[in-house]
Amino acid sequence: MAPLSGSAKKKKQKEKERELQRLKVIEERQAGSDTSPDEEIPATQPYGPWEEPKEKWDARLEAQPPAEKYSEFEKRAKARKGQPIEYQPAAISDEQTLHVDASTKFDSTAKPVQKLVFASGINLDDTLIDVIANADATFRSAVRVFVAGDAERKEAIEITSAGVEKLTKALPQLEVIALHGTSKLTRTAFPTILKNCANIESVTLTVVQGQKSKRIRLNSTLEWLNDKTFVPKLRYLEFRGVYHEAFRRDFLEFLTQSRPALEIVFEFDRPAVLIRDNETIPLDRVPAADK
Where does the record place Basic and acidic residues bias (predicted)? Predict the structure, then answer.
């Protein structure tokens, strides 16, 4: 095969660059942008979880009434000062919980349960996700709560963002998901959960201690939550070890005013905080719910 001429090489390189740019646009549309401010997105460009034209998105959000009057917001904020985290998921009995640990393997033929817990020490990876996704549809549709990993973030789980997508599609009724000590997630994991779980109330994503990576990070998909009709039941977010730009961190405070019921626990490099009612409070000053 004859070598390419100089002009042919340049043409091939340009084609490659155009294809990479096309793929980047698609990825940012689906997974969010890290750098582009929301207002700079072209009016006709698909935007948001359902990829509607940006101008249509803006018009629809502008027509939405505020969540509550500012006086009501102030009253709520005052009442919750010094109070424990308000959101608590619905209690689920032991009979409706399947605990997977060193002595109990996941059984896809087991009776349907509402809660799945993969204990610390069980490496939730995509191979295990495949087993869950292949379980009986009746079993999968019963699950409301999914918890995996080490809450102390000392041990890693290796689920990937592709695994998160498969998991959330397999468990369509999820209300609570907590993935502790992740090591392989990327920025697509969080928006994937929001898009696939219409009834979601609580999302916890933490990164294993000692891992510093920008692969999993907060980005412009947070702005999807400006739409009050999108995941309207969302009450609680927890991010630990998840990379972010400073202005994204500030946006979390704003979210708790536009969505007054939302509470956010956030930790990155500094001690954990509770973000609620457009205010940030050190988490160690927040009383436990049982006190």
Answer: 14-31, 51-61
